From TrEMBL:
UniProt keyword list: NADP, Oxidoreductase
Domain Enoyl reductase (ER) span(s) in chain numbering: 11-321
Gene this protein is translated from: qorA_6
Any GO molecular function: mRNA 3'-UTR AU-rich region binding
Protein name (Swiss-Prot/TrEMBL): Quinone oxidoreductase 1
Species annotation: Cupriavidus yeoncheonensis
């Protein structure tokens, strides 16, 4: 038996319920993993609220780390006792133990603790595919990155610094501005009191930027498009403030702009791609170029409180649950 967060209807954080569920033994191609840390990601809120549909009732969470307790038949590259993490597969990471497809498990290196890895599997690999695959940065570019003090954002700040990229980050408070700067963000715009477009024009001497990474969505869309150079690229990698709707005529009027809406699954599959991405993230950590630890920790049974904190922008960096 295991403890798990389940929900039977979409809605506010109060729909999340802690239950006792049957786990059982892994079948062919599966492994049973006992979690040590479970990551809380904004995409979890999308599922909880129905923004991303799920068949209900269901579990929640896609990202966790732990140790393999048992493996089923035909599993050859994962063994009992292995420390692993995952970010793909079915929903249900908000639990103390679960059975997973072995094909999505990522072995953790000895040089990276479970606590650190819990902030890297989804968030570090998101930074990897944004900066290394979606819009490959070579160094020397000036970029605009929204939510620079978030879970992905703080890793992105450090990755940009390591690449020699001049990162302009947006944050909501002065406290978060200091945090982003401490992690390598070159310039910080506090949106509560500064105009994004005016500040980008000032920082770039009117040249604007070739790429904007925007996980905020609706409330920042106009500013993001207005900050782009001719033939610039908007990487719309989230919609925390609401969905994005773009008139193609606007893209032409603002300079023949490009827009992409990337999804992890299309960059982290097949398995060889996923492992290569993870290895690059782990290498950055073990080389001292990225440091990452949870900024907020909640007990599994307090998952609803974690969601409220995230929704109300009361968090910075990574948030995790501990079974």
């Amino acid at each position: 038996m295991a403890k798990a967060i389940r929900f039977y209807e979409t809605g506010g954080a109060d729909v999340l319920k802690l239950e006792t569920v049957e786990v059982g033994d892994p079948g062919p191609g599966q492994a049973r993993v006992r979690h040590s840390y479970i990551a809380v990601n904004f995409i979890d809120i999308y599922f909880r609220t129905g923004h991303y549909p799920l068949e209900l009732p269901n579990g929640l969470g896609s990202d966790a780390v732990g140790v393999v307790e048992a493996v089923g038949p035909d599993v050859t590259d994962i063994r009992v006792g292995d420390r692993v993490g995952y970010l793909l597969g079915p929903q249900g990471a908000y639990s103390d133990v679960r059975v997973m497809p072995a094909s999505v498990l990522i072995p953790l290196p000895d040089g990276v603790s479970d606590r650190v890895a819990s902030t890297l599997i989804m968030k570090g690999m998101t930074a990897q595919y944004l900066f290394r695959q979606v819009y490959p940065l070579k160094g020397g570019e000036t970029i605009l990155y929204h939510a620079a003090a978030g879970g992905v954002g703080l890793i992105a700040c450090q990755w940009a610094r390591a690449l020699g990229v001049n990162m302009i980050g947006t944050v909501s408070t002065d406290e978060k501005a200091e945090l982003a700067k401490a992690n390598g963000c070159s310039h910080v715009i506090v949106t509560a009191r500064e105009n994004i477009v005016d500040r980008v024009m000032e920082i770039t001497d009117g040249k604007k930027v070739p790429v904007v990474f925007d996980s905020v969505g609706k409330s920042t869309l106009d500013a993001s498009l207005s900050c782009l150079q001719v033939r610039g690229t908007l990487v719309s990698n989230g919609t925390t403030s609401g969905p994005v709707e773009i008139d193609s005529r606007t893209l032409a009027a603002k300079g023949s702009l490009w827009v992409t809406r990337p999804a992890m699954v299309h960059y982290a599959t097949p398995r060889s791609h996923m492992l290569a991405m993870a290895n690059e993230v782990f290498d950055m950590v073990m080389a001292g170029k990225i440091a990452s630890e949870p900024k907020q920790t909640f007990a599994l049974e307090d998952a609803a409180q974690a969601h409220l904190a995230l929704e109300n922008r009361q968090t910075s960096g990574a948030t995790v649950l501990v079974p």
